[in-house]
Each structure stands twice: as structure tokens, then as C-alpha cells.
Amino acid sequence: TKWVYTFGDGQAEGSSGLRNLLGGKGANLAEMANLGLPVPPGFTITTDVCTYYYDNGHAYPPDLEKAVEDALAYISRQTGNVFGDPAKPQLVSVRSGARASMPGMMDTVLNLGLNDETVVAVAKAAGDERFAWDSYRRFINMYGNVVLDVAHHHFEEVLEIYKERKGIELDTELSAADWQELVKQYKAIVEQETGKPFPQDPKEQLWGAIGAVFGSWMNSRAIKYRELHAIPASWGTAVNVQAMVFGNRGETSATGVAFTRNPSTGEKELYGEFLINAQGEDVVAGIRTPQDITEKARVASGSTRPSLENALPDAYAELVRIYTLLESHYRDMQDLEFTIENGKLWMLQTRNGKRTAKAALRIAVDLANEGVITQHEAVARIEPAALDQLLHPTIDPKADRKVLVTGLPASPGAACGEIVFTSEAAEEARKVGRKVILVRVETSPEDIHGMHAAEGILTTRGGMTSHAAVVARGMGKPCVSGAGSVRVDYAAGTLTSGGVTLKAGDILTVDGGTGQVIVGEVKMLEPELSGEFATLMGWADSVRRMKVRANAETPLDARTARNFGAEGIGLSRTEHMFFDAERIVAVREMILSDDEKGRRAALAKLLPMQRQDFVELFTIMQGLPVTIRLLDPPLHEFLPHSEAEIAEVAQALGVSADKLKARAHALHEFNPMLGFRGVRLAIVYPEIAEMQARAIFEAASQVAKETGETIKPEIMVPLVMTSAELDLTKARIDAVAKEVAQETGVTLDYYVGTMIELPRAALRAGDIAKTAEFFSFGTNDLTQTTLGISRDDASTFLGDYVAKGILATDPFVTIDREGVGELVALAARNGREARPGIKLGICGEHGGDPATIAFCEETGLDYVSCSPYRVPIARLAAAQAAL
Ligand code: PEP
Ligand code: MG
């Protein structure tokens, strides 16, 4: 087995095709080397070694050591230095690199190979003592922290005390002798904390670092990140060992990160940050505020510090040449890391850059228009779920606002919530349904869970590429970073800015589009759906086969659905129309009636209201299909439950509290979801279904007359288990249709269909299709009844099932293909056989889930129906499924 792949000097043993083996970073370093770009020579230890390491009790393959020796010799041949040599020492960096990028999750060690001897040689070779000792203390700090588990703050404290004693404020004011003294103290810290001296043998250092990278694959941050992004633990990480180049060798050295297009807006411009005389992590860590790369950006930001373009024009020109080449080679926006050593540019990383949804759309549409990719590729490149970011409100520009401070617009969208200062508090609040804004000085990978739980994030330190900014953009959460004038006092639980102090629990609004932080709540605007969004959705619609409908019953929802491009209503839950203050009285009267006559009297009061509901839906949908479901929930849901409520309702209805209680008691069920609901209501109380059918037909006739549209209502019967139930109910509906036709003089076309949401219905779909003119898969109930997991009680244990890998995903979110999916496929097949051309759709929550939509395409369903806000997501997912 080949465990190690070298790269550098215009050639490499690997390439971008070997991503699984070399990890993303390693594969792209190899690719850049193959393209002849300036990449410091190095080698990648493969992900297979990681797998071997975990399969064999943390042991390496026997021939790995020899392979690493050979690869170190390869580096020597390129640089003329020798790893571990006291006279001409080669220093290296050691970094992780998984298949999928896991920002901030894994650990990096720079300047490896330094010890008490080599530091002298490095000083001599560079002609710079200060640089050598500064590098050495960085190395001890980083290695101590990452490999030897010595907390970072020990080093920080020693440094702070030292500076204080000398009356020095900035690190840059420390001399070579100062750093030399600090190296002594740092080594003492390591010895004190670990009980062993700092390792002086470079080989020991290297194997320690390699072990730490593999070890960090299983640290809790990495595990959490993989959990959130569905990355299997079995993929493993690679290790990249690379010759060091130094951005901290003075004023003609620098280090930076850049995107080939703006990752927030998608605009076509080089966008990034750099620091003169700095090393590696300084930019990302957000400790020093970085400088702009282009002159244009510097002018826009009003910074007084020079841009890269002005400070180091030759290196800048080289960066422009390389970024253009890389973007056209990878045919996508790239995220680059580079270091400039004594004026020479070196590339340390390229990868497809993370971006906001807005930027993703703009970039995909631009690249297609530039002819770099096809329209189909553009459609395929947008993650449907990411559209969610664009479909949510932004702050109304006209709204009054009390701006506390303006920070960096790190991740777009606006959010409002209570202030919390810790990720734990964010999670706690989220659990009880409260919305929070997470406020931190800066975030670290430990905060990922808190960022997830928060509506938005505010940090006081760090740039546009700080941890908070990068992670928030990936999550689609609004984020304002680097609000420097805000003082956070964690102990007191307060934040202060410009004399205003807010405490935990106070309401704050953050606007990640402008960087504004606003006291209190502000008016928000609905999203704008034109421009690139409309263009891309147009391309998506042209490849899509399945229709997309919405689940909607209110006029507001129906209109939202239409705006988002819904092509009809796939589920109108009529029970939602019954909870209105005025109607609930009539509904309760009906439930309390002792006989059919009483029920009919109460239903007569509901009829005009229901009719009006349907008139509005039919009018808004302008002839598009509208599926209306007959009453579904158990009747007790309409009755009051607490003593106080019972007393109040009894009085309003003019009945005794005892009678109300007795009725509620009689309707009590142990398993209401498996009880007296769905079509069972229509079987026992057919007058309810009749009233609803009448309301539908009268409304349809009225709208047809008024608008001249052909209205063809789809009446849907819920929770059918046997065709006899449907036969009986359909006969009632047909009879009502005849009556209404006689009364109005309008003969309507209509469909009567059913939900397939019980396993028996799926199994007997052939029989049911003899009567049903359409099926809509109610995958919420079908999942509940197939898995025997209560929809309402699943949350107590389902998380454990997913965490333990027993279920791959939550089956109420993504369809369980093997179980529930099998039933759907069977029912679709048998339904079609019994009634060729029968219309098939899905209206459970799964209808808006991209993975389920792919399944629906494979199964050949005619449409999916989902909540209005998910309609664009479903349109795109359906297009991708059809590609
Ligand atoms: C379903 O069961 O999937 C469905 C859409 O109906 P409801 O969620 O209203 O039970
Ligand atoms: Mg249901």
C-alpha cells in the first residue's frame, strides 16, 4: 500500500481526483503543484493511515516510517535543507485535511523541527535572531497546546506578565532577547504541566504532531461537526506535512486568505484579508485586525493601512494571475490561503469557497452566463436547503432603529432575540422555544452548538474570515462580527457600548447585511425574490418534472405559496379553519349535540364560513388544483381541558360545566392519534363531511361563475384503511354534489381521492384506487404507523437513535426509504395498475425535504406539497432530482 504522496516543484504523486485518499487539502495541494504553481514541497499521509490507526489500536502501518523518511528526503532535495539537521534545518508545518472541509475542527502545528540547536541555525540562515526566537516560542505554544494538551492560557499569562514587567504593550516591541527568555519560560511551562521536558528531537516532534492530527479526528468538536454535517467517522483525515514558508520575516513578508469572488454577495472581485509580518493563524484567529487585499476594498473600508496591491505589488500581481487560473481550472469560486516570504508568493491551500446562499446564486448564475458552467450545472450547484437564507426577512430600511453599534456584516439576514453570553445558555433557551442572540468576544469551535441554537451571532473581535463569520455563513445565520467598541463582561452578564448597558435577556437585533446591532425589536421586510433568484429558479423549473404544491389553508399562506411559485394546494387542513374564536363555538355546539338534528343545526352555522374559506382559496389559486381534506383530528382537540376553561366555555355555550366535562371525558382517548379521527369521523357523523362537501361545491360554483375559471376541487379523505370507508364517504360526497348542482344549475367536475397514510391502505392501494381518483401520501402518519413511533412523543428518544446510528436520519424529516418508502412505492405501483393515470402526490412534512423529493422523483410521483416557505426549496430539489 502507498501510504504517502509527495508534491511540490511543478509535480505531484497525487491529484484532485484522489480527494478521498488525500483529503481535500492534500488533493488540492497536489493539483496546484501539477499546475506548476508555487507550492512549498511536502507530502500527504493518506486517510487510509487514519483508518488503519483506528482499526489497530492507534498503531501505524509498519512501513509508514520508511515512507515518511523518504518523503522528508524528497523535501530536502527541493529546499536544500534537512529535517532535524542542526546546521541546515528544514522546518515543516503539520496540518489535518479531511475529505470534506471541516473548518476549525482539526489542529495545525507550524514551525515544527525547531529546538535549542536548530533555532540558532535558523537565526543564522535568516540573518534574523528575533524571527527565529519568535518562531520557536510560537512553536512551543502551538505544539504544547495541540499535541501536549497544555492550555493556551498558561502561555498567554506568562507573555502578559513579561510585557507588563517590561512596560511593553505590543508583541512587535519585543526583541530577540525577550523571545529567547520567553522560550525558556514556555519550556518550563511545558515541563511543569506535562512532567516532561519539551521534546527536542524533531522526529519525536513530527510523530507527536501526526498522532495529534489523527487523534483530533475523534475529538468532541470534530465529532459534533461531523454529526451536524452528516460526515461519516469512517472517512478519516489525512495529514499534510509541508516545508515551512514564513510570513513573519519582516515587512516584505505576509500571510493572508482570499476568495476569488465575494463570499457574501457573490460579486466578481478578489476579496480577502492579509497581515504583513504575520504567521498562519494570525489572520483567521482575529487577534490582529487584518488589511484589505485590493486597493478598491481598502478605499471602500476607509482603512488607513495599505492594501496588498500597494504594499507588495509584485506578489499581488502573482496572486491575481494564480487566482484567475485556479478559478477557471476548478470552475468555481476558490478560497485561497497564501504566504509571502521575502516578496515571494506561496500557495498553501485552494478549495471551493464557502459562501452565503445569496452569493451562491449570484456566482452560479454568473458562471453560467460567463460560459464557464452550464445552466444545468448552475442548478445542480445550489444546495436547496440554503435557499432558506433568502426566504427570510430582512430589516425594513425605513424602520426606526436605535443602533447600538455597527460591526462587520459577516453573514446576511436579520435576527432578533434575547441576549445570551454562552453557548450553553443559547442551547437551554432554544430547548424551551426562546429565541436568542449569542454574544461573544469571539467564537471558537466549542461554540458551534450555541451558534446553531441562536437566531443570530454578535462578536466583538475578529474579521470577515474569523471563526464566527465563516461558521455563521455556512449555517446561514445572521452574524455581525468585530463590533470592537462593545465591551462584554461575561461575569456580570452585560454588554456595554457608547454608555448603553444591556444585560442577558434584553432584546437585541443584529443585521448581518449591514453590520448594525440594534437595541430592541425592529420591523422586518419580506424577502426579495427577483434577480439571480428568479433566473436560477427559472432554469430549475425548465428541468423539473414533478409539480410543486403547497400545504396551505389561510389566504395569507395561499398567497405566500403563490409568490413562491406553488402550482396548487396539495393539502388544506380544514380543521385549522375551525379554531377561529367565532367558529369554535359552533364546532363545540356540534360536538356537544346529543343527536344528528342538533349537530346539523350547529353545522349549518359553520357552512357559510367554510364556504367563504374555500371561495378565497379558489380565488387566490386561479384555477390551479386545490386539494381540500375533510376534517381529520380527534374531536376532543376542540374542547377545553382545564377547569377554568371548562367553566368559561360552559357559560358561553349555555350548558352546564358537568355536561361539558362529561362529554370531554367520553371523548378522552388513550391513543388519540390512533383513535376516533380521520374518515372515522365521516363514517360516524356523515353530516360533518356533507357540510364540508357542500361548502366546497358551493364555493367552487360561485367562483367559477364569478371568474369564469374552471374550478375542479379535489376532495381528500384522510386516514382511510379500507376501500369500504372510502366507498361510503364518496357516495355521500357524490350525493351532495348532485344536490348542489341542482340548486346552482352548475355541474362541477371534481375529484374524490384519499390520503395514503396507514400501512393497510398502502398494502391495499389497488382496491382503494378503484374508488380513489388520486392518492396523496400522508407520510407523517404513515411514518408514525409504520414505525410505531408516535409523532408527538418521538423527540424523547429519537435523537439517541440517530446519535447511535440506529437510524441514519430522523424519519419524520427524511423519508425512511426502506420501510415507509417501500410502502409508498408499492402503493404507487398498485394504484397505477388499478387506475392508469391516477394522480400521485405527497403532502407530509417530507414533501419539502430535498432527500425525500429525490425519492419521490424516483418513485414517479406527480407532485410534492410542502409548507409555503419551502416551495422554492422543493422546486430546486425537484429540478435536481430530475437532472
Ligand atoms: C400526514 O399524515 O402526513 C399529513 C399530511 O396529515 P397530518 O399531518 O395533518 O396528519
Ligand atoms: Mg395525517
TrEMBL record:
Pfam families in UniProt: PEP-utilizers, PEP-utilizers_C, PPDK_N
Sites where the protein binds substrate: R573, R629, E757, G778, T779, N780, D781
GO molecular function annotation: ATP binding; kinase activity; metal ion binding; pyruvate, phosphate dikinase activity
E.C. code: 2.7.9.1
InterPro entries: ATP_grasp_subdomain_1 (IPR013815), PEP-util_enz_mobile_dom (IPR008279), PEP_util_AS (IPR018274), PEP_util_C (IPR000121), PEP_util_CS (IPR023151), Phosphohistidine_dom_sf (IPR036637), PPDK_AMP/ATP-bd (IPR002192), Pyruvate_phosphate_dikinase (IPR010121)
Enzymatic class: transferase
PEP-utilising enzyme C-terminal domain residues: 530-881
Active site: H467, C843
Gene3D superfamilies: 1.20.80.30, ATP-grasp fold, A domain, ATP-grasp fold, B domain, Phosphoenolpyruvate-binding domains, Phosphohistidine domain, Pyruvate Phosphate Dikinase, domain 2
Amino-acid positions noted as binding Mg(2+) in the UniProt annotation, renumbered to this chain: E757, D781
Necessary cofactors: Mg(2+)
Positions of transmembrane segments: none
Residue ranges of domain PEP-utilising enzyme mobile in the record: 435-515
Domain called Pyruvate phosphate dikinase AMP/ATP-binding: residue spans: 20-57, 60-363
PROSITE patterns the UniProt entry points to: PEP_ENZYMES_2, PEP_ENZYMES_PHOS_SITE
Top-level division of the source organism's lineage: Bacteria
Keywords linked to the UniProt accession: ATP-binding, Kinase, Magnesium, Metal-binding, Nucleotide-binding, Pyruvate, Transferase
Catalysed conversion reaction: pyruvate + phosphate + ATP = phosphoenolpyruvate + AMP + diphosphate + H(+)
Family per similarity comment: Belongs to the PEP-utilizing enzyme family.
Its biological purpose: Catalyzes the reversible phosphorylation of pyruvate and phosphate.
The protein, known as: Pyruvate, phosphate dikinase
Organism of derivation: Pseudochelatococcus contaminans
